[in-house]
Every structure is written in C-alpha cells, then in structure tokens.
Amino acid sequence: MRPEKIIGRFLGIDPGLNFTGWGIIDYINADKFTYIASGIIKTVPKMEYSQRLNHIFNQLLKIIENYNPMHAAIEDTYVNVNNKSSIMLAQAKAASIIAISQNNIPLVEYAAKKVKKTISGTGNADKSQIIKMISYWLPNISVKFSDEADALAIALCHASHYKHSEKI
C-alpha cells in the first residue's frame, strides 16, 4: 500500500458582506479529500462599510497564512434583483480576491450551479442536499453555517475539477 500524499490544498470562499464562508481541504493521491478547517468571517453591520471590507481582507490573509493553500476558488457573483446588494457582494468578493492575489495563489471562479452539480449531481440542489453531500465527501465533519458549507462545496468542486484535469 502506497503512502498517502497531498496533491494540493484548496481554499474555497463563499463571499458575502455579512458572512464570508471559507473552507480548506486537502486532495490526497488516493482520490480522496481531507477536511482541514472551515468557518465564517462575520462583519458587524454597525461598522463602517470600508472597515467591513478591510475585516474580510485581513481575516482571509490570516487564514491563508495559517493554512497555506496552494489553490483557491470563489463563487462567481450573480446579479440580485437589488442592485445595491449585488454591488456590496461584488465588493466583498473583491476584498477576498485581493487577499488571495497578494499571496500569489491561483484563483478560479465557479458558478453556484456548477458547484452544486459537481457536489450533488444536480445544479438545483438545495442547502440541505449540499450539506449532506459535503458530509459524504468529508466524513465526520459538521458545519455550523450555510456559508461555511458553501465554501467547502466550492473547495471540493475545485479540487475535483483539478483532479480530473491532472489525469488528462
């Protein structure tokens, strides 16, 4: 039996101004994935807007420093009915992208439907189905927040697509 070897460490990010989810997994050579860490970055609505973005940026820098991911993926932003919400989401995403960029980590964006399809087999999976499938892919973990689950799904999606591209 050959020893397990880490092929890559993947950071997934589900951006948001109130809650930015993050999740880190390792892709192992035996076609399996290992949970490393996950959580949310919470901002306080009473904070000045620029401070909220700065908080997201600084917390991601700390996460990157602590876990040293080799690859990163982020959910592609979609346009809400409320334009102001879309802009705020895009700016939270930008704070995340800059933190990743400062660390020279390759970044890929995935549409929510692509993440859902990769994780569950259907692009219309709901939150409970995604959480159930994350538990299947990463046994013995429990996630507390839906944004955290989404971030882990994004990391798994990217690692899965990376895995397949490496075999070509």
Defining key terms:
168 residues, 5 helices, 48% helix, globular
Quick structural overview:
It contains 5 helices and 5 strands, in the order E-E-E-H-E-H-E-H-H-H.
Describe the structure.
The longest helix is centred in the last third of the chain and has 21 residues, at 146-166. The protein is globular and about 50 Å long. The protein has a five-stranded mixed sheet, with helices on both faces. The protein is built from five helices and five strands; from the N terminus they run βββαβαβααα. Helix 3 packs across helix 5. The protein is an alpha/beta fold and 168 residues long.
How many strand segments?
A: 5
| Number of continuous helical runs | 5
Q: Can you tell me the overall shape? A: globular
List low-confidence stretches.
none
Q: What are the secondary-structure elements, in order, as H or E?
A: EEEHEHEHHH
Strands of the widest sheet, in order across it, are 3-2-1-4-5
Kindly state the percentage of residues in helix: 40-55%
Class by alpha and beta content? alpha/beta
| Main β sheet profile | 5 strands, mixed
